[in-house]
Amino acid sequence: MVHALTSAKAMYLEKMKLGETVIEVETTCTLSKSQLAAICTSPEGVVFRFSDMIDQYDKFMANVKKHVTNAYSTRGAEQYNLSFMLLDVAVTGLQSPDNSGGLILAGSLVLPSVEGISHPGSHEIGDFRKVLDQDKPRVYALGEEHSFVHTLKHCNVHEVYEVIGLNSKTLPQVRLPNGEIAGQMTSPLVLKARADSSVSVKIRDNVPIPLLHGHLIDNKSAYESALRMSMSKYLRPMPGSAVGTEYHVFLPDACWGRQWYLNHPEYEAEGGVVVPLDVFVADSYNYMEQANTTRITTFERSGICWNAQMLEYPPCVKFILKARFVPIVEKHMDGAVESIPWNSLKVDARKKIPLVDQMDITKNEVLP
């Protein structure tokens, strides 16, 4: 039984790839009075997607997609579903029309979570989990860990807060039972400056293909039914007449993680697979590390978790979101990518220049 996400992975590897250029955007964002009220009354924090905060989001996306499709796609921007590898996110310009009403505001990046796959230090909020840089000092606001904390004072308006960076390490290192050290992965990308000062993107040598379908993986898509993984406990005799305890994880066919063991007949069981706990934990950690490092996402499936404390709710809080990302684009035949910008230019000219005369090319004359 092939899970839908496994089919999506095969489709993406066949049809999609990472673009060759970094796209950098800066956009104004707003937290409304009602959003601020929700944040202040939720001690655990509240997640707002980037699409919930970016001003005039539809116009913003139409413009970004236009630039991506003009360089990479033979389809129009309206039909293009933009997903990307998120490299950097920063917040600056945090301010309010009524600064006297604000005390503190703190935030951190969130990505979708998957039930049963987490780290002891993970902080999950609903269907999302925080993604923090392990190499940076711990920042706490109202007891909750974040990437930055900001006081709403005029002198702090120009502060720039890096929410996540290109080479941020997002999981602590772990020594696996086989002696391997996991948790060392940084970005699989190498960025190089071209002669024209633009930035080119290359995948590091000996690094697996990034998780291009990662933006499709969340708690709802990872399970095709109400069935969830479960655990069994076994008591087995050990050398020296001792009795040892073993734990095994049952992954039903409807669970996406079950696909990790398609080529392991020794784990096959009725309705799924039964995997030793150590094996499942190692595979889950490897998935989390790849997902956190590549950060394949969209503006609708990632965002910021906020905590705030205010004396009075101001009309709104404004800020500027800075982001760098590499778009996931369609694969084309060799040489086709180079011709797409020319074709986009030609299509644009065809749309904008009025069509006046019809020419009959068989007679080589202009018809009235």
Q: Which structural class is indicated by helix and strand composition?
A: alpha+beta
Strand content: 35-45%
- Uncertain regions spanning at least 5 consecutive residues: none
Shape type: globular
Instruction: Give the assembly state of these chains.
Output: single chain
The level of helicity is: 10-25%
Radius of gyration, in Å, reads: 25 Å
Spatial separation of the terminal alpha carbons = 64 Å
Q: How many structural units, i.e. domains? A: 1
Mean pLDDT: 87
Tally of DSSP helical segments: 7
Quick synopsis:
This protein has seven helices and 24 strands. The protein is globular, with a radius of gyration of 25 Å. By secondary structure, the protein is an alpha+beta fold.
